[in-house]
Amino acid sequence: xxxxxxxxxxxxxxxxxxxxxxxxxxxxxxxxxxxxxxxxxxxxxxxxxxxxxxxxxxxxxxxxxxxxxxxxxxxxxxxxxxxxxxxxxxxxxxxxxxxxxxxxxxxxxxxxxxxxxxxxxxxxxxxxxxxxxxxxxxxxxxxxxxxxxxxxxxxxxxxxxxxxxxxxxxxxxxxxxxxxxxxxxxxxxxxxxxxxxxxxxxxxxxxxxxxxxxxxxxxxxxxxxxxxxxxxxxxxxxxxxxxxxxxxxxxxxxxxxxxxxxxxxxxxxxxxxxxxxxxxxxxxxxxxxxxxxxxxxxxxxxxxxxxxxxxxxxxxxxxxxxxxxxxxxxxxxxxxxxxxxxxxxxxxxxxxxxxxxxxxxxxxxxxxxxxxxxxxxxxxxxxxxxxxxxxxxxxxxxxxxxxxxxxxxxxxxxxxxxxxxxxxxxxxxxxxxxxxxxxx
Length: 440
Description:
- The protein has 440 residues and is of the alpha/beta class.
- 22% of the residues lie in helices and 26% in strands.
- The chain contains 9 helices and 24 strands.
- GO terms for molecular function: flavin adenine dinucleotide binding; saccharopine oxidase activity; sarcosine oxidase activity.
- Residues 11-383 form the FAD dependent oxidoreductase domain.
């Protein structure tokens, strides 16, 4: 394995989505002079989950490790630490702070079992800035009159006015990549088909055009497409979610500006409209979709791109609107797409050296909560590359194929909503998708 000397080491990053762009930025900030990033699409990649108008950014405060107890202490501290670091950096880094909107957060569930999950995992306590929301009238008062008009049947919630909100995903992604380029990183449009392996180590990557891209060190940040490039030993499950936009008038956008994020873990979520297109994005909440097939004798979920969503998902979006904003429930969609992520078994990140290839570093496994970390996740991937990652993080994010032995590919992994089961795109006929016109 080649050592990492910022002045002389050549670094190849595969993927320029959220984590690839963040890694490129932090390599440049760390003084690396010879960094190349490969992606099939120009920034922002058409298939990147980060190429989106907004993402939830629910903040955390730092806590010393001593406050975490039990066998999960290291995992919980690691999750809290990177989330707190991201929160601080959204607020302070000049590159990112204009894209973070601290508008507040409303967290809710309808089923008592999911209420218990929220209480356990999100800890919406007064000490963490939350207050209870129990009635439809209380929910409606959390936004300007005329926004929330629904009956909120069986909803139980909590709200906080500070320390959470949303980030403009696409602008933050482009900002990270643009700043990396300004500092000398080279971003090339080229699709990686395989790793270049010689003498038992990774020496770079092969691309669809037949070119070899050689480097001293390679970092794989290919998201849900990583299992098509290297055997991940079933540690990643590419899983997709669905989103839709509806057109809003200029007056509606003014009314809906600076809204707190509203998230129900069974129904869906939304935040304020996009000012540029005057569109409101809504996501229906469900455990996800897969696209399983057998490749070389192994079962795998294979991502694909489509700017439509299944009709059953459209109904989920409209049901969410009927419960919260029925005045919008029947409005036509102006845009829709499926959005892929890669789930690890326990939804912890996978940021690790590869055990078989000393020159390969992995930055994978965003598991549905990766984007809000774009200001800092690249820093930790660089620390992993250099062998400087905190030991607790190293253990939490390690290469861990033992956790995926006989993996339950249908596991909900703590997610609810919809039919409360994982759904497969292969079971959806072509006439069971929306038929929205292509967006130019």
